[in-house]
Amino acid sequence: MGKAATARKSDARSVKSELGKKSPLDLDRTIHERLRLGIVSALAVNERLTFNDLKRLLQTTDGNLSVHARKLEDAEYIACEKGFEGRMPRTEYRLTAAGRRALEKYVAHMEAILGRSGLTSRLPVRRSRIRSGDRCGSRIASTGSRNVCSS
């Protein structure tokens, strides 16, 4: 390796350390994907949601939702409970403590990235911790005893 390549690597390491512990490439890829972020966000503001609630909310197909929900289950970010309501199968999801921590960490990381870019000073970004009962989007429609985010 030449002197120029070694110098570039050294410069890249020092820039990364100056910017902080994480680079934009260090995002939690499990949550970062759009549909998975939607699932985790919806479950952050709703104690439980059924498969059909999530499908309707996220406007996706059965197959797409089940694949992404499975990845979140494998990461232990969400828990799945299957049962029956009468004779109809019912699948419910809830956010686990690990999933809530991962989402809070992801949001803080995104805010840090935006802060470094100077973008947060130009955008009206609301900074708050994600809590159960918070609104997602502009409206929340009531579905039985659960709150389901709607757009």
Work out the radius of gyration. Answer: 19 Å
CATH class: Mainly Alpha
Quickly count the domains. 1
> End-to-end span in angstroms?
54 Å
Can you characterise this structure?
- The protein is an alpha+beta fold.
- The chain has a single domain, classed as Orthogonal Bundle (Arc Repressor Mutant, subunit A).
- 49% of the residues lie in helices and 19% in strands.
- It is built from six helices and five strands, in the order αααβααββαββ.
- It has helices spanning 3-19, 29-32, 34-44, 51-58, 62-74, 97-117; strands spanning 49-50, 78-85, 88-95, 139-143, 146-150.
- It has a three-stranded antiparallel β-sheet with strand order 1-3-2. It has a two-stranded antiparallel sheet with strand order 4-5.
- It is elongated, with a radius of gyration of 19 Å.
- The relative contact order is 0.16.
Write the layout of secondary structure elements.
Layout: H1 3-19, H2 29-32, H3 34-44, E1 49-50, H4 51-58, H5 62-74, E2 78-85, E3 88-95, H6 97-117, E4 139-143, E5 146-150
Antiparallel strand pairs: 1-3, 2-3, 4-5
What is the gist of this entry?
The protein is an alpha+beta fold.
Characteristic key phrases:
151 residues; alpha+beta; Arc Repressor Mutant, subunit A; three-stranded antiparallel β-sheet; two-stranded antiparallel ribbon; 49% helix; 19% strand; elongated; disordered C terminus
